[in-house]
Design goal:
The complex is a heterotrimer of chains A (about 300), B (about 290) and C (about 375).
Chain A: H1 2-44, H2 61-68, H3 70-101, H4 108-116, H5 123-133, H6 140-146, H7 163-188, H8 192-200, H9 205-216, H10 218-234, H11 237-242, H12 254-264, H13 268-296
Chain B: H1 14-41, H2 46-50, H3 64-72, H4 83-113, H5 119-131, H6 135-148, H7 154-179, H8 182-190, H9 195-203, H10 208-224, H11 227-232, H12 240-249, H13 257-290
Helix pairs in contact in B: 1-13, 3-13, 4-7, 4-10, 5-7, 7-10, 10-13, 12-13
Chain C: E1 4-13, E2 16-26, E3 31-35, H1 42-50, E4 57-62, E5 65-66, E6 77-80, H2 92-102, H3 107-120, H4 136-148, E7 154-158, H5 166-183, E8 186-191, H6 194-200, E9 203-208, E10 211-216, H7 218-223, H8 228-233, E11 240-249, E12 252-258, E13 264-268, E14 282-287, E15 292-293, E16 305-311, E17 314-317, E18 321-328, E19 331-338, E20 348-354, E21 359-361
Parallel strand pairs in C: 3-8, 3-9, 6-7, 7-8
Antiparallel strand pairs in C: 1-2, 1-4, 4-5, 9-10, 11-12, 11-14, 12-13, 14-21, 15-20, 16-20, 17-18, 18-19
Helix pairs in contact in C: 2-3, 2-4
The chains are: A mainly alpha (about 300), B mainly alpha (about 290), C alpha+beta (about 375).
Chain lengths: ~300, ~290, ~375
């Protein structure tokens, strides 16, 4: 009798706990491989690790050295230039295309498909295509010269001061279509009756968009900003494929800096410190965003 | 995308419509330009490119660059072409996508229909894991893969992609199942169905659309990954993106641009194909990954 | 002990108590309706009976067996949901048979049971369809079939008619009542619609703020509301509630009411009232619209018809009746006149008030005092 009672309650316990048991492998994986690893790398950033992890604590030394390295300064400056141009141009272009595409355009679906396909490509593919297209020897410059404009010059990719802008060109090409799609979805979500009311009030098309439509796209702007900002900070593949960080270190970004310091220059402590700073900056953007998204859903 | 939502009521005159069409067409050309450059130059002899004919159609059509990129081009030390790396990518993508999708579906099911104290925190933790800069995990992961004995192997890459793919697949299924009526689950509970029975008989049959979205997203992401491939693979386990980069960046000999372009298209084809066949789902996946809920 | 017993049951989410101590005993074959506005705790109580929500304290038992910790599937109950909750991927026959399948009933027995239920509900022709191919009324029918086929001890209905249009709702209401009379099953039924509660139930529990305000037969609830909430919630148009003052002269109690023009009028309570102990006290007087009529429409059996002349503000013809709005005690008051009475806004018109049907409440406690 007591046996059957116990097995019944054991069964009950199992059935009650089953959902959590099913979820637990994923949770454990994430706790170890995301948060555990974050803590580990964070710890390494305070150690004297060089080619291999080592556990001698050195305080803030890696951080102070990081900020005194010229390459890191360049990488951060580049990220600011690249990030702000990338976000602003993508948003402006994306919004403009979305508004134009929202005017009952014939073949809208077809045009949308063309605008968006770059998002399906690897940055390595994109980088390869743009690398040779922008190459003065065979790309745009050579083509224009072969058409007869002998003095035409376009050598940004070889120019330390301008190379960072070629990254912007390729990155905008890749993601502006996606931003367009986000804004288009936002535009389609706006109540038509409000627009009709504004038209009856005598608003011109320009006023309609500036005063009524665009202010209502705030959530789409927020999402676009968050997505683009976090992509900018994580940008790695495109730089590797397009410029390799060059000429020299002219197009290094924090992501490439971290990789080369950690794995080729054997300065693991400094690499870990740079990764920590990348994480902090992404967290500053993503945590409030995720927080607000989850809180609204409750 | 809400393409079938009620159309815009803004009216534009005929003149401005021509301008709009002109601008839209111009941007079509802009977005197609790199694809065009890759395609035409992968089909012409190297000499035509070197002569400044990058924008022109091939005067002499050839598939030699494609053959070279696929089976004879020098990648790293071996002249194997991209074929073995293409296979590596396939071997890596299929299991990683399958497992992360199944786990994501189960997680989404638990997080929406079997809620418990703290479930939102668990989801938040999973979700933030999607967005971390992976530089933060490269060092410990390299050691961990070594400890597990799968460093530099395809299974090692599968594992890495699985670990960092769970967050997104959970996000997709959770958001989808959140819309799924909880009354159905309750009805099935009263009818006597248990946890897995409800999942199999009630949830799964309605999960087709989100499964497609999730699979496409994971496929595209994992296929296109470069950082993990570059960090955790050996010469014989490199995925396609890493091999392509090696091909393009190799500094030995003459730069065979036409072969590079052919290789780039090869690396792009699987995801491009998915996009063309299932673009609707692809876009939905992109949107769900950014505009949550 | 009844068939379904709710003993001192409560429900809390964290520190928020959504259901206070509740005791209800339901006999076999009873049709109990839980009625109240949204958030009153009625659905929570239903879910607790179903086992979809745990009881925080107290106990719910069916046929004398405590249901605490018993899974919904093992309680021998069936439930009809507001959204019908039909499994979208299964056809009607499979929807109905699913519960039997989960309980290990053999295929041929399932088919037989499905056929019986389909005949009972006259939906044999629907068995092969998917829920998406059904109309609202048909879905409702399938949802009932799915509950019936299980032959449970208790049927639970969670606002089953609220997604139907007005006409269909009335039809389905009749059908549910017929089904109950035919099968004699025990039903607990949740609704926010007081008409549904009055027409369907054998007993009603009126709920508000997590408390059962009153438990009784439809007639008890309607005629003798326990407090102002029940009085105002049950009945449509709702009971007129307006302030008055008790005045006792020669041992006979009357209610003094201010009229709109500043005059006052005195309405004697019906013989046998208990109001003489409340001399000079403020009360809230409750009179249903059908007890305020034109003089010819007044109840001839009543001994307590009194006349008030007051100004008509609005008339609302409703086909069979005219609702006439005026002011008494500073509150809007609606009377129910026969349709052919010639009355228009602005008229000063004699109203006949049936004090047999009047009830009085304490304005502070809001409880019934007479």
């Amino acid at each position: 009798m007591s046996m059957t009672v116990r097995s019944r309650s054991g069964n009950d316990w199992l059935r009650d706990a089953l959902p959590r048991i099913v979820l637990s492998p994923s949770l454990v994986i994430v706790l170890v491989f995301v948060y555990g690893f974050i803590l580990f790398t964070f710890y390494l950033s305070f150690t004297d690790s060089r080619i291999l992890p080592s556990y001698g604590l050195v305080g803030w030394q890696n951080y102070s050295r990081l900020f005194s390295v010229r390459a890191w300064g360049i990488a951060v400056d580049n990220l600011l230039i690249f990030g702000s141009l990338y976000i602003v141009i993508s948003c402006v272009l994306g919004l403009a295309l979305a508004i134009l595409l929202d005017q009952k355009i014939r073949a809208e679906g077809f045009i949308r498909t063309i605008y968006l396909y770059p998002m399906a490509l690897s940055f390595i593919v994109t980088g390869t295509a743009w690398k040779w297209f922008l190459d003065p020897g065979i790309g745009l410059q050579a083509v224009v010269r072969s058409w007869g404009w002998e003095s035409f010059t376009f050598e940004w990719i070889k120019d330390s001061d301008m190379a960072i802008y070629t990254i912007v060109i390729a990155a905008v090409w890749q993601t502006s279509g996606f931003v367009m799609a986000m804004f288009l979805a936002g535009l389609r979500g706006i109540d038509n009756e409000v627009l009709k009311a504004a038209q009856i009030d005598g608003a011109s098309n320009w006023a309609l968009y500036r005063r009524i439509v665009i202010p209502q796209l705030r959530p789409a702007f927020m999402s676009a900003f968050v997505v683009l900002a976090h992509m900018a900070i994580k940008s790695y593949d495109l730089i590797i494929a397009l410029t390799g960080g060059g000429p020299g270190t002219a197009t290094e970004l924090p992501a490439t800096f971290m990789y080369s310091y950690t794995f080729t220059r054997n300065q693991m402590g400094i690499g870990a410190a740079s990764a920590t700073i990348m994480l902090m900056s992404i967290a500053a953007i993503m945590v409030p965003y995720i927080w607000s998204e989850l809180r609204e859903k409750r | 995308m809400a393409s079938n939502a009620s159309a815009n009521v803004v009216r534009t005159g005929a003149g401005s419509r021509y301008v709009i069409y002109a601008i839209l067409t111009l941007f079509c050309l802009y977005y197609l330009l790199p694809l065009y450059v890759m395609a035409v130059n992968s089909l012409k002899p190297l000499s035509e490119i070197q002569a400044g004919g990058m924008m022109a159609l091939p005067s002499q059509w050839t598939i030699a660059p494609w053959q070279s990129a696929w089976s004879t081009a020098q990648i790293g030390v071996d002249a194997t072409g991209l074929r073995p790396y293409f296979l590596n990518s396939i071997l890596m993508v299929v299991p990683a996508v399958a497992i992360s999708t199944v786990l994501g579906a189960l997680n989404g099911y638990v997080l929406t229909k079997w809620r418990f104290r703290g479930d939102t925190i668990v989801f938040g933790l999973l979700l933030f894991g999607c967005f971390i800069p992976f530089q933060m995990v490269l060092i410990p992961m390299a050691r961990m893969l070594g400890l597990m004995g799968i460093a530099g192997t395809v299974p090692g890459l599968i594992f890495v992609h699985l670990v960092y793919g769970i967050g997104f697949s959970t996000l997709y299924f959770r958001n989808y199942y959140q819309q799924f009526p909880t009354e159905l689950v309750r009805a099935a509970m009263i009818d006597g169905a248990g946890f897995f029975m409800i999942f199999r008989r009630i949830m799964l049959p309605s999960s087709g659309p989100i499964a497609v979205v999730c699979i496409i997203w994971q496929f595209t992401n994992i296929w296109n990954d470069f950082l993990f491939g570059a960090s955790f693979s050996d010469f014989d386990s490199q995925p396609m993106t890493v091999a392509l980069n090696n091909l393009v960046q190799s500094s030995t000999g003459v730069k065979e641009y036409n072969v590079h372009f052919a290789g780039a298209i090869m690396a792009a084809l699987p995801t491009l194909l998915v996009y063309i066949v299932a673009g609707r789902y692809f876009v939905r996946g992109l949107m769900a990954g950014s505009v949550k809920g | 002990m009844g068939f379904l017993d709710i003993n001192n049951a409560t429900k809390s989410y964290g520190s928020v108590k959504v259901l206070h101590e509740t005791d209800i005993s339901v006999e076999e074959g009873e049709f109990l309706v839980l009625v109240g506005p949204s958030g009153c705790g009625k659905s929570t109580l239903l879910n607790m009976i179903a086992g979809l929500e745990e009881v925080t304290s107290g106990d719910i038992s069916i046929k004398g067996r405590s249901m605490n910790g018993v899974r919904p599937a093992d309680r021998n109950i069936a439930m009809v949901f507001q959204s019908y909750a039909l499994y979208p991927n299964m056809n009607v026959a499979k929807n109905i048979a699913f519960g039997l399948e989960m309980h290990g009933v053999a295929k041929d027995e399932r088919d037989k049971a499905v056929a019986e239920v389909a005949d009972l509900l006259q939906m044999r022709h629907l068995l092969d369809r998917k829920p998406s191919q059904l109309s609202g009324g048909q879905r409702q029918r399938v949802a009932m079939g799915r509950a019936l086929v299980r032959n449970p001890d208790v049927f639970l209905f969670d606002e089953p008619l609220s997604n139907l249009d007005a006409k269909l709702r009335v039809d389905m209401r009749t059908e549910i009542k017929k089904l109950h009379q035919k099968l004699g099953t025990t039903i607990v039924y949740v609704t926010h619609d007081q008409i549904e509660a009055l027409t369907l139930s054998t007993r009603i529990a009126v709920m508000f703020g997590g408390h059962v305000q009153q438990l009784g037969t439809p007639k008890e609830i309607y005629d003798n509301p326990a407090n102002i909430f029940v009085a105002g919630f049950m009945g449509s148009p709702s009971m007129n509630l307006f302030p008055a003052k008790v005045q006792v002269e020669n041992g006979a109690a009357a209610a003094r009411i201010d009229l709109a023009d500043g005059a006052t009028v005195s309405l004697p309570f019906a013989p046998g009232n208990t109001m003489s102990g409340y001399d000079t006290q403020e009360i809230i007087l409750g009179i249903r619209p059908e007890a305020i009529t034109d003089e010819d429409g007044a109840d001839r059996k009543s001994q307590a018809i009194h006349r008030i002349e007051t100004r008509v503000e609005v008339t609302e013809p409703a086909g069979s009746d005219i609702f006439v709005v005026s002011h008494l005690g500073g509150k809007e008051v609606t009377g129910r006149f026969r349709a052919d009475v010639d009355v228009s806004p602005g008229d000063v018109f004699p109203f006949a008030v049936n004090m047999d049907k009047a009830v009085a409440f304490d304005p502070k406690t809001e409880m019934r005092i007479g």
